[in-house]
Design brief:
- By secondary structure, the protein is of the alpha+beta class.
- The two termini are 30 Å apart.
């Protein structure tokens, strides 16, 4: 696993061969720097987590969630964390929040035009599909 500690809490533009084409505090800054360095490459945008092991998190769903969830803290959890640590692409996304999980899930579903299901009223869990 590559060490991305120097890029913690920043966006990276990566080439198809996982070379760093550009980086920046914003998505646009990383994208622009990447395009300047590799104008013909198909670039992937990734965010480097601020805490060790400084995992690369993909643009989607991270950017979409940042636009929807502005007040609650949200953490990536479960299988996707395992997949990212093993260098695999997650096939689904699990998140944990401090409170109002079903309300947060409902808001995400509504904003993204997706289906919402209550999984457990007592444990305040929901699913967005």
């Amino acid at each position: 696993m590559k060490n991305y500690a120097l890029y913690a809490n920043q966006w990276l533009a990566l080439t198809e061969s996982d070379e760093i084409a550009g980086f920046g505090v914003t998505v646009e800054e990383a994208r622009n720097r990447g395009r300047n360095s590799y104008p013909k490459e198909q670039l992937r945008l990734m965010w480097v987590s601020p805490h060790p092991p400084h995992m690369l998190l993909p643009f989607w769903p991270l950017q979409a969630l940042r636009e929807i969830i502005t007040t609650e803290k949200i953490w990536l959890a479960g299988g996707p964390v395992r997949d990212l640590l093993l260098g695999r692409t997650p096939h689904d996304w699990d998140f944990a929040v401090v409170k109002n999980a079903r309300q947060t899930a409902r808001r995400i579903a509504n904003k993204m035009g997706l289906a919402y299901y209550t999984l457990d009223d007592i444990r305040d869990t929901g699913r967005v599909m």
